[in-house]
Amino acid sequence: MPSCPFCRQPASKRDGHDAAGRQRYACRPCGRDFTERSASAFTGYRWPPEVILLAVRWSLSHPLSAASVMELLAERGIDVSKRTVLRWVQTFGPLLAAEVRRHRRPLGSTCYVDEVFFFRGTEKHYLYRAVDETGQVVDVLFREHRDTESAVAFFRQALARTGWRPTQVISDHHQPYVKAVREVLPEAEHVRTGLHRARGETTKAVERSHVFVRDRLRGARGVKTLATGQRFFEGFEALHALRRGYTCLAALVPGHDLVAAGAHERARAVARAVTALGACLAKMPRRAA
């Protein structure tokens, strides 16, 4: 029997069926009734998970607006509004990102950190990003200001999510990084450098990785708020990690090597990987989402 999605205890007995004919269970410890679908992050949505994941994957993987995704879905007989597409991306993008982090490849010992700015009208916001020596994105944080508080918050979030303790942090000459590294990573060596150095360490690795996220937003009007931007960037980086082969998904997508595969095979493998990750989300209580 499935576990209770509320208290996580094994169900004690079957308790009839609901209006849709699904088996209902009664949890003796907490006294609540539930069905197998109650334990799904997709509970309460009109469209099946396959449709939702397709829209989310298109929105995060390609430079498409919500209206464009809406039209592509309409061609397949799926009539949703662009606002629905945006809600799906905001809800399931971070959930997919959390699942991808569980399957990421081991991080290296060097951290390259930098921030990239985005405009919406006259407002300027900053996206903090860090990569290791292989180019794998460690974490992202979207902030309103470029200051010490933001740098400290970024390092704390990255360490809390990954448990990673790099031995070397490489940044540009932005002064707040000095205090942030000293406060959050006192045991790490901090190297302050530039982009166009003839020798030694440079920030080229993280600067080069900014290109993908800039290209994704080039045709858009930016992100409206810090919260929506954070959720979008987390989902985008997750799908980008799948395409670049920074995840260990052999158990979820057997027989596919995302690193060695060609462009067509890689696209099919990423689609299967998102479907497999969606199956993991289907087992997640919606309250946890």
Which features does this protein show?
289 residues, Nucleotidyltransferase, domain 5, five-stranded mixed sheet, three-stranded antiparallel sheet, 42% helix
Please describe what this structure looks like.
The chain has three domains: 1-39, no CATH class; 49-103 and 247-288, no CATH class; 110-218, 2-Layer Sandwich (Nucleotidyltransferase, domain 5). It is of the alpha/beta class. The mean pLDDT is 86. α2 (66-75) packs across α3, α3 crosses α7 and α4 packs parallel to α5. Helices cover 42% and strands 16% of the residues.
Q: Any idea what the shape is? A: globular
Radius of gyration: 21 Å
For the biggest β-sheet, the strand order reads 6-5-4-7-8
Number of helices: 8
Reading off the top of the CATH hierarchy, the class of the largest domain is best stated as Alpha Beta
Q: What is the annotated CATH architecture of the largest domain?
A: 2-Layer Sandwich
Protein structure class:
alpha/beta
Which SSEs are present, and which pair or pack?
Blueprint: E1 13-17, E2 23-26, E3 33-35, H1 49-61, H2 66-75, H3 82-102, E4 110-120, E5 123-131, E6 137-143, H4 148-162, E7 168-171, H5 176-184, E8 189-192, H6 204-217, H7 226-244, H8 263-281
Parallel strand pairs: 4-7, 7-8
Antiparallel strand pairs: 1-2, 2-3, 4-5, 5-6
Helix pairs in contact: 1-3, 1-8, 2-3, 3-7, 3-8, 4-5
